[in-house]
Amino acid sequence: MSESPEDPGSVRPAQASAAAEDREHALHARELDAADPLAAIRDRFTLDDTVYLDGNSLGALPRAVPDRLAEVVAREWGELRIRSWSESGWWAAPERIGDRIAPLVGAAPGRIVVGDSTSVNVFKAVVGGVRMAGKGCTEILVDATTFPTDGYIARSAARMTGLAVRPVEPARIADEVTERTALALVNHVDYRTGRLNDLPGITAALHSAGALAVWDLCHSAGALPVGLDAHGVDLAVGCTYKYLNGGPGSPAYLYVRESLQERFDSPLPGWNSHAEPFAMDPGYAPAEGIVRGRVGTPDILSLLALEAALDAWDGVSIEAVRTKSLALTDYFLDCVNAYAPPGRVRSVTPYDHSRRGSQVSLESARAGEVMTELIRRGVVGDFREPDVLRFGFTPLYTSFAEAERAAWVLGEVLRALPEEEPEAAGTAG
Ligand SMILES: *Cc1c(COP(=O)(O)O)cnc(C)c1O
Predict the structure, then answer these.
(1) Which of 143, 150, 216, 299 is catalytic?
(2) Which atom of ligand 1 approaches the CA of 117 most closely?
(3) Protein residue with least CA distance to atom 6, ligand 1
């Protein structure tokens, strides 16, 4: 059965049904929003009528940020100038803000330092991990489905340390790890499909083979509980501009398990990680604790924007965020099933809650054109090559009504863009 705009029998009259009041799922969305304990948190963000489902790429602006940044610039930089390194707490910001992120990823204070990009922190974690691994290790395993930057950096880190890289699907790591494996670098949530990988199970399997577990939390931190300390994760990295809403290019973070910190030998031992940075000693001696994950002068404006952004989490538990995230993604999938023409999209995100992150990825023919049209109609997700439509759900500010509207507009767009482009006349084969 095809549903084309020329087939009025099988198509809802778009104009007549476009009003939310008339749609079968819209009423239910209003009930879900009315019962949502996080609904009021949305007011902590600057948003508009656009359905913004790209917070897994760039989180929305928390309202507290502009005034705080203006104050940092005018007062701390403009008036206090150099005094702000101590008087305004600039120097200690990387560890202080690390301690603010810590409860969201299940870490005790003193285990996370903020600074540099995720890519740079992947380098620190992989080389640092190899330097802690057993002498006989010859390889590192890299998530075969990883976000590309992790793979690029891991291959360079392996070249520098004389190890081989072996790409392995996350579900296969427990079977593939050997006593020659130094570590595995794995994405907690797959950026493309939204699949949640089994962090406790994979970490335990790596440990039983004597290997370290290095996790990339870019698509899980701020979206679901991670439990770094509880699961004995060795090293972890993550960015802060996705579900943590820190702003474009906001600094990333590095986690080092407490019992490994003493052995953590950073491949980027800048003066900020020195035991006595102001001694200006030509010889290097690492600071104690997580400070040794620092490199050079921190990016203060971005760091302090991130710190203000984290105020949006006041009084919010990551468990409540997870509950809403699963409800939102379930609901969106239901609405897509109800509204999209049959057979036009296929979810590549697992239905199983224990394997789902906070996004829904739909495979679709002409996905690039579909997303362009969705954005034109006020529903912002993104497109990933070759055929994936990504919709990120940020429980702090996404409503059920928005999930419903996005699915409705998707249905309209799919009907307006038939699956196959009309073939040029006379084309054969
Ligand atoms: C977003 C993302 C990154 C980004 O790295 P940058 O250095 O911040 O550009 C890295 N890894 C994963 C898994 C990501 O999702």
Answers:
(1) 216
(2) 7
(3) 118
Residue nearest to atom 2 of ligand 1 (CA): 218
Catalytic (active site) residue 324: no
Note the pTM of the prediction, 2 decimals.
0.93
Our answer on whether the CB atom of 145 is closer than 6 Å to any ligand 1 atom is no
Note the pLDDT of residue 407.
Answer: 98
Report CA(238)–ligand 1 centroid distance (Å): 7
CA of 119 to the centre of ligand 1 (A): 6
Assess whether the C-beta atom of 149 lies below 6 angstroms from ligand 1. yes
Q: What is the pLDDT of residue 428?
A: 41
By alpha-carbon position, which residue is closest to atom 1 of ligand 1?
A: 218
Q: In which band, very low, low, confident or very high, does the pLDDT at 18 lie, cut at 50, 70 and 90?
A: low
Q: Decide if 390 is catalytic.
A: yes
Q: Please write the tens of the pLDDT for every residue from 61-97.
A: 999 999 999 999 999 999 999 999 999 999 999 999 9
Cα–ligand 1 centroid distance for 349 (angstroms):
19
Rounded to the nearest angstrom, the distance between the alpha carbon of 187 and the centre of ligand 1 is: 10
Predicted confidence (pLDDT) per residue in 359-391, tens digit = 999 999 999 999 999 999 999 999 999 999 999
**HEC secondary structure over the chain:** CCCCCCCHHHCCCHHHHCCHHHCCCHHHHHHHHHCCCCHHHHHHEECCCCEECCCCCCCCEECHHHHHHHHHHHHHHCCCHHHHHHHCCCCCHHHHHHHHHHHHHCCCCCCEEECCCHHHHHHHHHHHHHHHCCCCCCEEEEECCCCHHHHHHHHHHHHHHCCEEEEECHHHHHHHCCCCEEEEEEECECCCCCEECCHHHHHHHHHHCCCEEEEECCCCCCCCCCCCCCCCCCEEEECCCCCCCCCCCCCCEEEECHHHHHHCCCCCCCHHHECCHHHCCCCCCECCHHHHHCCCCCCHHHHHHHHHHHHHHCCCCHHHHHHHHHHHHHHHHHHHHHHCCCCCEEECCCCCHHHECCEEEEEECCHHHHHHHHHHCCEECEEECCCEEEEECCCCCCCHHHHHHHHHHHHHHHHHCCCCCCCCCCCCC
- 216 counts as catalytic: yes
Q: Delineate the domains of the chain, giving CATH numbers in brackets.
A: 13-62+316-415 (3.90.1150.10), 91-297 (3.40.640.10)
